[in-house]
Amino acid sequence: MQALGRVLRPSLPLFPLLAALGASPALAAPKATATPSTANPSKDGGEPPDPAVLSLARFGQGIERLTIENGLRLVLAPDSSAKTVAVSVTYGVGSRDEGPGQSGFAHLFEHMMFQGSQHVAKGQHFTLISERGGSLNGTTSADRTNYFEVLPSTELPLAMWLEADRMRALAVNADNFENQRAVVKEEYRMRYENSPYMTGMMRLGELVFAEYSPYTRPTIGSMADLDAAKLEWVKTFYDSHYAPKNAVLTVAGDFDRDEAVKLARQYFGSIDKPVPARAPLPEMPNQVTPRKDVVHDANARTAGFYFGFLIPKTRTPEHYALEMAVSLLADGESSRLEKLLVRDRAVAQRVSAWTHDYVGPDELALQIVLTEKAKLPEVEKLVEAELETLAKKPAPAAELAKVKRRIRSSFVFGLQTNLSRATRLGEYESYFGDARLLTRELAQYQAVTAEQIQQALKKYLGPERRQLVEVLPAEAAVTPTAHPGAPQAAPAPKTPAVTKGGKP
Amino acid sequence: MKRLASLLSCCSLLACSSAPVPAPVAPKPAASTTASGAAPAAKDPLSEPPASGITPSASFPAIARRTLSNGMEIAVVSRKTLPIVELRLLLRSGIASDGPKPGLAVVAGELTKAGGAGPWNAEALLERAESLGADLNVTTDRDSTRISLGVTTGDLDSALDILSAVATKPRFDPKEFGKLRTREIERASSAAKSSAGYAAAMILYRELFEVPTAIHPYARYDALPSELAALTLADCKAWHKQHMTPKNAVLIASGDVDADAFAKAAERAFAGWRGEKPEEPRFSEPMPDAERHLYLVDRPGSGQAQVLVGRLGPARQTPSWPSLAVLNQVLGGGVAGRLFLDVREKRSLAYSTGSSIEEPAHSPVPIVLSAGTQTGKAPQAVQALLENLDRMGKSAPSPAEIETASRYLSDSFLFKTETVGALADMTAKLSVLSLPDDYYDEYRKAVRTIDAATAQAQAGGFFGTDHVVIVVAGDAEKLSQRLTHFAKVIVIDPQKGFTPGRMLPMNAAQPLE
Asked: Which chain B residues touch A267 with a CB distance below 8 Å?
């Protein structure tokens, strides 16, 4: 797997979701928010400071947070190394905010944000950014939706103007809506229906979050719900979620701080839209029922399977420990499962593991794609055994050090571009109430011990909490979907039922 | 982990490969357009896009070059903003050096790592590299093989030792070779079934680089499982001896590094490595079939079809390259390109569509248009791509389109060079394509000063629907008849060696619907 965006996360205190920046200075008291002294990179004072850690500390020290009068939060991260500027607007809305029967709508709505606004005609958003040497995109996850662009640094006003115009008023019509509905359905086909093992991954999410409805449905939604989406919902959704108070505007790169604040006030300052408070996330359920399901996949040549586990939310000590477990198991070619299954036993073509890093309870998943002759039950047992081993025996110091090294690299290499900085800082501000936590995150990983990893494994990755999805090659396509029905229970299910849709 | 998570759990406006998307075409900030249709009352200062600034000047950083005593070139790009260094050991031999043994360069290249090297066996080598926080990668493309590693500055010497061991002292462990070959066979077999894009590309390049009496070095996108099975350890050793030599290599470092110190360290690490420059493969002139064919790669039950339309352009070395790049940008280079605005935003046929020009070091360059569309709409998608290609060849792009495309290509350079990895890769590209060190700056100047009339005059030579190869990877049962509208249809089974099967004659009267 190529190095994707290598990036990680923040530090301790868990602020409530979307907490206003109580402590952060408003415009009236400019500047402020000097970064607290970042952890001393030299832990015991004996070693020379680690330049990689110092570089993150410097990045953190340059970050400023403030809130303008209409409630819009600003995160400013100036750095003139590259003559570019990246702007990201992170809205506190994602697929978890969709109503029953509306799966996929947050993402479809994201597409509508590029279809024109009060002073921007259809297509003009694309051409304006392009003709000034910039690039753009928008993404939707369960917890947030973001819109971003990177441009030569002289084009900051354009980025701000475009983002403000669509925050102020959208121009939506039936033609554009039908057009983007079709485009999103093609996206669904490309990413899921026509991609091997992806319907299995979708199914896994439904099982892992069977008892936690905000995250049960995949962000892409179901074809049926996309077909049923109505133009009127666009306005309702916009009015409910798209407002300064529910957004973070992040600017990273080569810009003048005062100029950026001035532009933010000039373009966004007059937007004043009340939005209802976001529904708070429920707590993680205490009980989890293990389940199993089988997905037939016409794109798969060989069988594969997923293990999935419901785990505590991101940025908790246990989540850090479990992320380290993910690294030990499947990060890199020398990781445990890669070595065992791909290289030594040749029973797997590919091994992957990840956490989604949701704001609420999270999913930890393992994906194993088998080789032609390998047998599912045998490989499942091997993975199970590896999880047990990791729970029983502490990871050797050298192995733990390797994983920490890799995490360190992922921060330093992953935060090189202004665009990666803008989007990640925006998420941190939106999720945790302080963008600067991103730059202090590395220390959290470095502090994890082998014992903490063991304990977290014992508590959360046992067979009694495990969701299993097996993927079998099929001759012809089987329509994937969000399964409305009850999944097959694995051992002896007590209450097998996937809650569909619905708000908590 | 964060790295994967964001990809898995997000849906995005655009299919982004790694960086967001590029873009071309269109109108200048049309001031008075109001999407809402409301009459522009007085003069709202917020109603018009802010004026454009003057793009900051930014040249490609200086490349310091040295040559080691064994003939290996060194290229160093210093950028010291972060304590990191990206290394690329570039060999100017890739898939085109396979000769009669398809898959050889890929397997031999990977084996230098997978078989262990120097003091490390296979397992220890990976442990060593990953303990530096790095990923050791060997990648092979048409014209080159790259061994890559990115480390924090303090680990530079250790990283050089790893690169040196892999390139100069691979162990060629027979057991590891057997395992690697098996993995490669599994990979190729799976890709043929699982990936519509892969299946379509296997056919596209085979047909574009058709040579009547031989196999063109660029005709193979990937080896077939049966071809991989025929490779031997001796083949790999021979390839390594011939191609992995200091006189065929460029060692590139970018980031927190100085040229002189680096050259000294490299001299130490690569001392004793000897070898001559290999012979270049022979590149005959490709002669795609004059009669148009449509290749339908069968994917039974597939809900979406991948459509590719390709044709050959001029050689990469053409002085008209900047014009070609600008024109391609107009056609389908990004979100302001015609394909995006027409095929996606107007005709609603695809989520992902665009056109790209590949850059092989020899022979004409492939120009490839693509769209992924629901099975039932595949004929309409073929039609849409052909119409846009035809229009590009026949009628001139507007000056506004040219201006948008040229400015994007020139100014996007600023964000495309933000990482030290990008600098290393761009430096490598200069070596592969034999371009001068001031190439990027000159190219940017050239695209910014493209004369619309000249570009327009050249468009007809580059674009058009003559000599195109059309490939659709989709459900043959549902599509074969309908696609006869465009050409003779040849059905291909990707799981049986991509050999031609059923043929259906062209029937222009066949309705698209």
From this structure: 46
